[in-house]
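Try this one yourself first.
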């Protein structure tokens, strides 16, 4: 149970155990509905990266695992006495400049089973496999065939998670799936690209808070004091700020007052996280313009509730 408890806690969930003597034990696992983790294969097609949930895949292969053969006008991939029809992912997505399959093709493949039929889908490169936090595409890109969701990578880029079985049943319409396109940028904002600024002079606190926030699919901006935060805000305006009270150079009260005095930033929700529990410090924070005041130790659920509620406004 220790392993289960640790895993569920990492996903911001909870484990409840209820025992009745002589009758048995009920174990309840609770996970946040907004958080879906997918193990996925990162691949590349042209200049674009996509994620393929491994639950849809039978195998990922290098081209030398078998041979391409041509029967009539059709090319198939032969491996271990099996022959699989071939299609490129670029074709399924109706991407421009599709490179046709040849008998000497050296690109990688993934095998996808759909309705009892296995198809070899060609991709330009297999990059990595990892667990990704998947989010829905939001109101800007709704019900796009073949897209199961999207995820934000460690470098801040957004990748679409593709539903290959759906694409094989009915290829996508000719649309741009580039997450660097204007539609993709709007979708990225909607699926969790909001920037959460964390301002604390403790490196360990910045790391733990950034991990908590990034696990929810948000991006983080990290500053060690108020002056560094102001400098960073000149380049990127955060959507929410999490601020310590006592810091060198410029403390949290001074930073909050500065943010509230600036017309470009005065509406940013600010949560102050501090070990100061007295009414005096609460009043100082309130007068400066702090939106929420949490004292250490605090419940992560309370902090996440503040962030999520602030982003909905």
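Now uncover the answer:
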């Amino acid at each position: 149970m220790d392993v289960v408890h640790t895993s569920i806690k990492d996903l911001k969930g909870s484990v409840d155990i209820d025992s009745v003597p002589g009758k048995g034990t009920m174990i309840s696992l609770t996970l946040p509905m907004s958080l879906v983790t997918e193990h996925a294969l990162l691949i590349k097609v042209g200049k674009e990266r996509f994620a393929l949930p491994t639950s849809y895949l039978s195998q990922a292969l290098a081209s030398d695992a078998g041979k391409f053969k041509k029967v009539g006008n059709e090319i198939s991939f032969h491996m271990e006495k099996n022959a699989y029809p071939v299609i490129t992912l670029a074709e399924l997505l109706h991407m421009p400049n599709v490179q046709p399959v040849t008998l000497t093709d050296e690109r990688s493949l993934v095998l996808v089973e759909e309705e009892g039929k296995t198809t070899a889908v060609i991709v330009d490169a297999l990059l990595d496999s990892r667990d990704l936090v998947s989010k829905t595409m939001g109101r800007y890109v709704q019900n796009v065939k073949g897209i199961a969701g999207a995820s934000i990578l460690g470098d801040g880029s957004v990748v679409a998670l593709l539903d290959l079985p759906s694409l094989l049943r009915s290829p996508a319409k000719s649309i741009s799936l580039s997450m660097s396109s204007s539609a993709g940028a709007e979708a990225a904002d909607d699926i969790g690209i909001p920037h959460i600024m964390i301002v604390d002079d403790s490196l360990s606190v910045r790391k733990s808070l950034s991990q908590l926030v990034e696990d929810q699919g948000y991006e983080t901006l990290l500053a060690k004091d108020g002056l560094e935060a102001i400098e960073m805000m000149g380049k990127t305006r955060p959507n929410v700020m999490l601020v310590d009270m006592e810091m060198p150079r410029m403390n949290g009260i001074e930073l909050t007052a500065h943010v509230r005095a600036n017309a470009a930033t005065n509406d940013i929700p600010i949560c102050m996280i501090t070990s100061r529990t007295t009414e005096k410090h609460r009043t100082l924070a309130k007068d400066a313009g702090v939106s929420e005041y949490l004292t250490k130790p605090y419940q992560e659920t309370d902090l996440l509730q503040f962030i999520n509620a602030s982003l909905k406004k």
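Discussion: Residues 173-192 have pLDDT under 50 and may be disordered. The chain has three domains: 1-31, 34-192, 195-312.
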